[in-house]
Amino acid sequence: MDYRKKLIVKPGSKVRLSKLDPAWHGSHDSEKEAAEEIAKHLSTIAEHQRLLYGEKKHALLIVLQGIDAAGKDGVCWHVIKGMNPQGVSVTGFKQPTPQERAHDFLWRVHPHTPGLGQVAVFNRSHYEDVLVARVHNLVPKSVWATRYDRINEFEQLLHESGVTIIKFFLMISPEEQLKRFGERLDDPMRQWKISDSDYTERALWDDYIGAYEAMLNKCSTAYAPWYVLPSNNKWFRNLAASQIIAATLQDLHLQLPAPTVDIQAIRAQYHSAETHPGKPEATGKKANGKKSR
């Protein structure tokens, strides 16, 4: 199944998240069934990231947004891990600093976008400024309502500069979220992630859903599409994300650049069986072409 076609938010469409099943898992019934396919996608991602790095004609930006505990970190751990860290950066955008607040809302984002040959992952992103800012009335509606257009323009600029953009919205149910919060309570290795706001924000669930729907409906474009990933099943989230990333990279038709040197001349001069270190010329022949004894 092509999850790009199944999970994409078509530009101009009107998504209603209440009509989508966060527990949907496609044609697979278990993580065991999906494991081989996930591994294949990760291999494809690794291969094509190497081509991306070498060719330096394209860049990739992966945006992760989602309800708390939906698994943004999990995508980084289980999908982005397939890439060479030399060519990848991961940035999280949380509460802005005083310096960041003194600038336009995209000022803090632009320096973290990927250069040609690079992959950048936003674990939370510039969309926080039409999500948290909207739900908590951090700025007037007259301010956040104009940001959708600014975001679309920003992403179009990146696209025109060679950046391919994939945006994932990770969706879980309220019940699954509470279950995952409880698992954190019981796991000493994850207790540090617990905060009071994890629970207090649940009271604003409907407000967040409205903000997410506006984000998806206003900012899914042909050059920067949104995909809604049903994420109650972590393994399916990883399967869908890995397939979409792999297929997107394949569509770029990446190729390594041609060598900048004469390969045959280099091989003959430095890698001949009769070549000695420090003496690039062949030593088994005289200048007149006769072999020495």
List keywords for this structure.
293 residues, alpha/beta, 5-stranded parallel β-sheet, disordered C terminus
Structure description:
The protein has helices at residues 3-7, 31-55, 72-78, 98-101, 132-135, 141-144, 147-160, 174-186, 196-200, 205-219, 234-250, 263-270; strands at residues 59-66, 88-92, 119-123, 163-171, 226-230. With 293 residues, it is α/β, with parallel strands linked by helices. The termini are far apart.
| Coarse morphology | globular
| Fraction of residues in H or I helices | 40-55%
Q: Report the radius of gyration as a whole number of Å.
A: 25 Å
What is the N-to-C succession of helices and strands? HHEHEHEHHHEHHHEHH
Specify the biggest β-sheet.
Answer: 5 strands, parallel
Q: Which structural class do you get from the secondary structure elements?
A: alpha/beta
Question: Poorly predicted ranges (pLDDT <50, ≥5 residues)?
Answer: 282-293
Placed side by side, the strands forming the largest sheet appear as 2-3-1-4-5
What's the number of extended β-strand segments?
5
Beta-strand content estimate: 5-15%
Can you give the mean pLDDT? 92
Distance between the termini: 70 Å
Q: Specify the number of helices.
A: 12
Could you give the topology of this structure?
Elements: H1 3-7, H2 31-55, E1 59-66, H3 72-78, E2 88-92, H4 98-101, E3 119-123, H5 132-135, H6 141-144, H7 147-160, E4 163-171, H8 174-186, H9 196-200, H10 205-219, E5 226-230, H11 234-250, H12 263-270
